[in-house]
Design brief:
Blueprint: E1 13-15, E2 21-23, H1 27-48, H2 52-72, H3 93-105, H4 121-146, H5 151-174, H6 182-187
Antiparallel strand pairs: 1-2
Length: 188
């Protein structure tokens, strides 16, 4: 078995899918690195929840994020090179997320104030994943200002953060944990 270490990144550069090397602080590496961190956070959510439906949905999202990461890690092909074949982007998931959000929202009381992140282990982990998702979205926006990024990637991350917020509220409600509003905490 080949070792996990290659030593090729010891000088602060990394290889991209399809060829080429860039600094590890390159906007492309920042973007797919944040998507990878989001994927790990969702794995943590799956580990702390007993909700089978949520775990099933998270598994689909995690697979989507691998596909998105592959696209982000692959720049346009250099002259004379062919771009590697990539998994399809999960463009159908955005309207599916909207359906999931609508379903979940129908189970919740209307929200008229800000709530503090936290609650049950699953709810708190979902809130953390939401903030990582927003950071990943910002990194992808930064990359898109310099290089081509499929617009569906931005729409996916934007809608996913909305979904994670609603799922955090649902997880807390199912766990019997009241939401703490910013207003009540501020007064407290």
């Amino acid at each position: 078995m080949a070792p996990i270490y290659t030593r090729t990144g010891d000088a602060g550069e990394t290889g991209l899918f399809g060829g080429g090397r860039v600094p590890k602080a390159h906007p492309r590496v920042e973007a797919y690195g944040e998507v990878d961190e989001l994927n790990a956070a969702l794995g943590w959510v799956a580990a702390v929840t007993d909700d089978a439906e949520l775990r099933s949905r998270l598994a689909r999202i995690q697979a989507d994020l691998f596909a998105i990461g592959a696209h982000l890690a692959t720049p346009d092909a250099a002259p004379g090179r062919k771009r590697p074949e990539l998994p399809p982007l999960p463009e159908e998931r955005v309207p599916e997320f909207e359906r999931w959000i609508d379903e979940a929202t129908s189970q919740l009381p209307e929200l008229r104030v800000f709530i503090l992140p936290g609650g049950s282990p699953a709810g708190a982990a979902l809130h953390l994943a939401r903030t990582i998702c927003r950071r990943a979205e910002r990194r992808v926006v930064a990359l898109a200002r310099a290089e081509a990024v499929q617009p569906s990637v931005l729409a996916y991350l934007n809608r996913l953060s909305d979904l994670l917020f609603v799922l955090a509220r649902v997880a807390n409600r199912r766990a019997g944990v009241d939401e703490i509003t910013w207003e009540s905490a501020h007064r407290g």
